[in-house]
């Protein structure tokens, strides 16, 4: 069950990054790479600092 919950959170993170509006289009690409290459750390970083950086 924890694995399924982790996959759901990870998928939501990717969706949230892709659908967010950024001042610079390169920011989206950078965040997608961070989340894809560092799944656990990237997800935590997105929710801690990334969501505050979008417009």
Automatic annotation (TrEMBL):
Protein location: Cell membrane
Domain Cardiolipin synthase N-terminal: 8-51
Pfam families tied to this protein: PLDc_N
Keywords in alphabetical order: Cell membrane, Membrane, Transmembrane, Transmembrane helix
Membrane-topology annotation of the record: Multi-pass membrane protein
Transmembrane regions: 29-49
Superkingdom of the organism of origin: Bacteria
Main location as per UniProt: membrane
Gene Ontology cellular-component terms listed: plasma membrane
InterPro entries noted in UniProt: CLS_N (IPR027379)
Protein name per UniProt: Phospholipase_D-nuclease N-terminal
Origin species: Algoriphagus alkaliphilus
Lineage of the species this protein comes from: Bacteria, Pseudomonadati, Bacteroidota, Cytophagia, Cytophagales
